[in-house]
Amino acid sequence: EAGVTQFPSHSVIEKGQTVTLRCDPISGHDNLYWYRRVMGKEIKFLLHFVKESKQDESGMPNNRFLAERTGGTYSTLKVQPAELEDSGVYFCASSPRQGYYGYTFGSGTRLTVV
Amino acid sequence: AQKVTQAQTEISVVEKEDVTLDCVYETRDTTYYLFWYKQPPSGELVFLIRRNSFDEQNEISGRYSWNFQKSTSSFNFTITASQVVDSAVYFCALRQAGTALIFGKGTTLSVSS
């Protein structure tokens, strides 16, 4: 089966611009997660979708970040307007059902805000 | 509260040396899972191992081995005869029911030839 796919793999944008990251989970996986690693720091949870519903968005840093998962398939994470501190690697992961402890991570999107 | 501590920020070794990466966790749950991930310079997160809280058996996979000790809340990772390709950031992580994966800050391992 195909893994979790994220694109773009890299994005360089100027401060104040908008960027949209996309994640395609493994087909049939209801649970989708976004994480990010800011340079040199730990990987932090952003939010969790169950199908199209946001189950937990406690990790979203501020209202410049908007995540959607229309139809319960792929998800997008939009940053608008981007700030320098948003630079980092954004990871997406999926798992098949609640209570299943395994995750499959995508390769990440490296975002650089200049 | 749940927390994962990787006290070693950076480790440098020479090829063929053995190296142990420490991981200490905190949780009040009796059911939880522990993970190790590798992040090579290319950036992706590579799954290495998952261990549930009821299975304290140590595991060996090639040059990799893991020592899970509930008595000390530790889940240490040892690489035997390290190689340059082992150079990466290694993350230990914890997951409990109903919560997201919690990562440690990572240990950067540099293996020189």
Structural class of chain A: mainly beta
How many strands, which pairing sense, and closed or not: the largest β-sheet of chain B? 6 strands, mixed
**Helix coverage percent of residues of chain A?**
under 10%
Number of strands of chain A: 11
What kind of oligomer do you see?
heterodimer
Share of β-strand residues of chain A: over 45%
Portion of residues in beta strands of chain B equals over 45%
Average pLDDT of chain B: 93
What general form of chain A does the structure show? globular
Number of E-state strands of chain B: 12
Q: Compute the number of helices of chain A.
A: 0
Largest interface: A-B, 24 and 21 residues
Helices and strands of chain B, in order, run as EEEEEEEEEEEE
Shape, per Cα inertia axes of chain B: globular
Compute the number of helices of chain B. 0
Distance between the first and last residues' Cα of chain B: 41 Å
**Low-pLDDT residue spans of chain A:** none
Question: What's the N-to-C terminus distance of chain A?
Answer: 37 Å
Structural class of chain B: mainly beta
Radius of gyration of chain B: 14 Å
Report the biggest beta sheet of chain A as strand number plus sense, adding barrel if it closes: 7 strands, mixed
Helices, strands, pairings?
The complex is a heterodimer of chains A (114) and B (113).
Chain A (H helix, E strand, L loop, with lengths): L4 E3 L2 E4 L5 E6 L6 E8 L4 E8 L2 E4 L8 E4 L6 E5 L8 E8 L8 E2 L3 E5 L1
Parallel strand pairs in A: 2-11
Antiparallel strand pairs in A: 1-3, 3-8, 4-5, 4-9, 5-6, 7-8, 9-10, 9-11
Chain B lengths: L2 E3 L4 E5 L4 E3 L2 E3 L5 E8 L6 E7 L6 E3 L2 E6 L4 E6 L8 E9 L5 E2 L3 E6 L1
Parallel strand pairs in B: 2-12
Antiparallel strand pairs in B: 1-4, 3-9, 5-6, 5-10, 7-8, 8-9, 10-11, 10-12
